[in-house]
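Weekly sync, protein design subgroup
Attendees: M.S., D.O., the rotation student, P.L. (late)

Item 1: inverse folding check
M.S. brought a backbone from last month's batch and wanted to see whether the design step gives back something sensible before we order anything. D.O. pointed out we never logged the input encoding, so this time it goes straight into the notes. Structure tokens as presented (244 positions):
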């Protein structure tokens, strides 16, 4: 079944027992360096819009379609390297422990929204965080409240819900109450034809174990059990349309 048909059935409540079939090439192989963001595929686009060639093309088509409907998409973040993610993680770890958190508490707080370096989907050049341009807001733009009915980006949220899958982009961290892991992120989209095979490789190669053994501040507070749960809840706690 085509995944679009599946999602239509799902929205009608009819697809509970149907397993989504991925249309892309699930036999593609990716290096561990690519999966961990240590090495990137060739990036297309500039500044906040840096994606793989195919994802970039699809994103531009989607952006143009949104523009035709009067919605201006603005990109906040796309490809992020391992080094970038490590910097983010360590900065937060230091800030939170300075505020009095124990190492464990700091890690739990970090992984509400940020990933453990080497496990971010942003490492893959397939995922992108978007907001609506020309909608001034104060402070942090990546907050779920801006995408709620009274929020500045609600129009964008509705457009994404209705149209993004036509361009093979899917929300990763949905507001499904049964989902664990990262909180609801109405801004984070993933280009499925590439990110699904990437996730398949990621799991097969057990990249998470490699990520966990890197030298990163705060990692001494991570236990193998916690990493196992992180894999289940954070890495796999995603929109099921994006599972291999
Ligand atoms: Zn994101």
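Designed sequence read out in the meeting:
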């Amino acid at each position: 079944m085509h995944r679009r048909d599946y999602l239509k059935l799902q929205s009608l409540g009819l697809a509970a027992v149907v397993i989504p079939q991925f249309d892309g090439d699930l036999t593609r192989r990716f290096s561990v360096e690519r999966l961990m963001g240590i090495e990137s595929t060739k990036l297309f686009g500039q500044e906040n819009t840096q994606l793989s060639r195919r994802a970039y093309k699809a994103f531009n088509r989607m952006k143009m379609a949104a523009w035709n409907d009067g919605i201006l998409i603005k990109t906040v973040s796309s490809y992020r390297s391992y080094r970038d993610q490590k910097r983010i993680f360590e900065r937060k770890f230091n800030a939170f422990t300075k505020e009095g958190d124990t190492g464990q508490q700091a890690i739990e707080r970090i992984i509400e929204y940020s990933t453990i370096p080497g496990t971010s989907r942003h490492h893959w050049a397939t995922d992108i965080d978007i907001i609506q341009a020309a909608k001034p807001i104060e402070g942090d733009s990546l907050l779920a409240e801006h995408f709620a009915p009274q929020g500045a980006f609600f129009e964008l949220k509705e457009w994404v819900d209705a149209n993004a899958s036509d361009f093979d982009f899917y929300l990763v961290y949905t507001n499904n109450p049964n989902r664990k892991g990262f909180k609801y992120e109405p801004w984070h989209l993933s280009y499925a034809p590439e990110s699904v095979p990437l996730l398949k490789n990621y799991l097969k190669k057990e990249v998470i174990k490699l990520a966990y053994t890197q030298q990163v501040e705060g990692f001494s507070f991570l236990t193998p059990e916690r990493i196992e749960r992180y894999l289940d809840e954070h890495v796999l706690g995603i929109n099921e349309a994006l599972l291999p």
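Discussion: Residues 183 and 237 are 10 Å apart (CA to CA). Residues 32-242 form a domain with the Muramoyl-pentapeptide Carboxypeptidase; domain 2 fold (CATH 3.30.1380.10).
Action: P.L. to compare against the previous round before Friday.
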